[in-house]
Amino acid sequence: MRAILAQPRGFCAGVVRAIEIVERALALHGAPVYVRHEIVHNRHVVEKLRSKGAIFVDELSDIPAGAMTIFSAHGVARAVEEEAAKRGLPVIDATCPLVTKVHNQGRRYVTAGRTIVLIGHAGHAEVEGTIGQIDAPVHLVSTPADVATLPIDRSTPIAYVTQTTLSVDDTRSVIAALHEAFEDVAGPDIADICYATQNRQSAVRDLCRVADMLIVVGAENSSNSSRLREIGVELGLPSYLVADGDGIDPAWFEGVSAVGLTAGASAPDELIEHVIAAMRRLGPVEVSALDGVEEKIEFALPRELRDAAMARRAAADC
């Protein structure tokens, strides 16, 4: 059996940055540090950080006074930031820079006098944070059908922003519906869509051309991982989402000679290896990788962690 790996797959720069923020905060301040919500949507990542001293909580009220606090990569509403400041909690913000960019875009559109439409999934942590970062009403839509129900006059100038875990392909039909429903529509350039989401979805489409089955490694509550599996289904392949190798079913592999493997943006490479090891218990596996985009993007750490690292190096040099 052949296991063909998508390129790119797994961690994106925003996730790498968020995890490093927690690890550096632990090294700098010691355990425990408190993280509001899962730092990223992956149980294995969360458990590894928990074993090092990170404590994950749902609300700021669960954090003791004065405890080091980290906001997750998905971002938080301004009300959460204000509550943390009111309680005097020392905060490190691990919000992905691309999510912050969406927040800033939304604010600029409001300043320009436009009504905001957010394309995303209700209940997702990033969506809740984005709505809470824009000081104006935000109308949430997920499908073209949602656009038809918007309580906005056709002549009203509108602008749309999107959840970063949605790709150009995911949003195209909704954006088209907005242009059809309203006379004056503005929105970000395609280049502003999250590169990692688009790259991983494009890679899965390439993968499905050469595979008989698709396995996506990621968490069930990971929006981008679920979407990768959905693409496989849309292209006619048996497609499965697993957290790790323990989630595979030997029955899936009957009559299959080429298995496509990828991972969501919050899943580490070691989980892909865990799936391959589980496949090898069923028989010999030859592993190869498709050619694809090589991502070289890196996001800077928050200033307080960069300054602390510089101070440590200076002290060591002395």
Can you describe this structure?
With 318 residues, the chain is an alpha/beta fold. The protein folds into 3 domains: 2-11 and 195-289, 3-Layer(aba) Sandwich (Cobalt-precorrin-4 Transmethylase, domain 1); 13-96, 3-Layer(aba) Sandwich (Rossmann fold), CATH 3.40.50.11270; 98-192, 4-hydroxy-3-methylbut-2-enyl diphosphate reductase, catalytic domain (Cobalt-precorrin-4 Transmethylase, domain 1), CATH 3.40.1010.20. The chain contains 11 helices and 13 strands. The protein has helices spanning 13-29, 43-52, 78-87, 97-111, 125-133, 144-148, 168-181, 195-208, 223-234, 269-280, 303-317, and strands at residues 2-5, 33-36, 54-57, 69-71, 91-93, 115-119, 138-141, 158-162, 185-186, 213-217, 239-242, 258-263, 286-289. It has a 5-stranded parallel beta sheet with strand order 11-10-12-1-13, sandwiched between helices. Strands 3-2-4-5 form a 4-stranded parallel beta sheet. Strand 2, helix 2 and strand 3 (54-57) form a beta-alpha-beta unit. Helix 4 runs parallel beside helix 5. The longest helix has 17 residues, at 13-29. It is globular and about 60 Å long. The termini are far apart. The mean pLDDT is 94.
